[in-house]
């Protein structure tokens, strides 16, 4: 759909590997971030107008504890996200958050704050306005 940004598709950045070993992902793979604080996934998204955007972050967390990340938009931390456990690496869920976007290009970075790193990240859906 319009407004979907796959984690494996440039100019997205995955500080880790693009993997395909856990079924249920969209596109051709997902971002398996290195298990380390600061090993981020970043998306570059386009907004037709400035305003509050709703993000849908699709992820899987088959580990036994939630994983935390800063939500960084255009270089500024605008919030934090806790990616809850999903029960299996093949169980993908979508988490919704809102962020401010500029008109035009914006970088959205999920920047993990603990040594476990990010969950596996599949894609980012972005919608402006209709939240
Ligand atoms: C497992 C899993 C990976 C995941 C990793 C993690 O190795 O297969 O897909 O990224 O755990 O704990 O982050
Ligand atoms: Ca990982």
From TrEMBL:
Residue stretches making up the CBM6 domain: 3-127
Record field: transmembrane: none
Similarity annotation: Belongs to the glycosyl hydrolase 43 family.
Protein known as: Carbohydrate-binding protein
Organism: Nonomuraea diastatica
Organism placement in taxonomy: Bacteria, Bacillati, Actinomycetota, Actinomycetes, Streptosporangiales
Range within the parent protein: 594 to 724 of 724
């Amino acid at each position: 759909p319009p407004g979907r940004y796959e984690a494996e598709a440039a100019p997205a950045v995955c500080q880790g590997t693009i993997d395909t070993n856990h079924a249920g992902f969209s596109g051709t793979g997902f971002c398996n971030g290195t298990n380390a604080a600061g090993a981020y996934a970043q998306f570059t998204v386009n907004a037709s107008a400035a305003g509050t955007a709703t993000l849908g972050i699709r992820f899987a967390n088959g580990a036994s504890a939630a994983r935390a990340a800063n939500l960084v938009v255009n270089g500024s931390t605008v919030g934090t996200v806790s990616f809850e456990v999903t029960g299996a690496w093949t169980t993908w869920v979508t988490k919704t958050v809102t962020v401010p976007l500029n008109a035009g290009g914006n970088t959205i970075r999920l920047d993990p704050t603990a040594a476990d790193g990010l969950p596996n990240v599949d894609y980012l859906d972005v919608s402006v306005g209709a939240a």
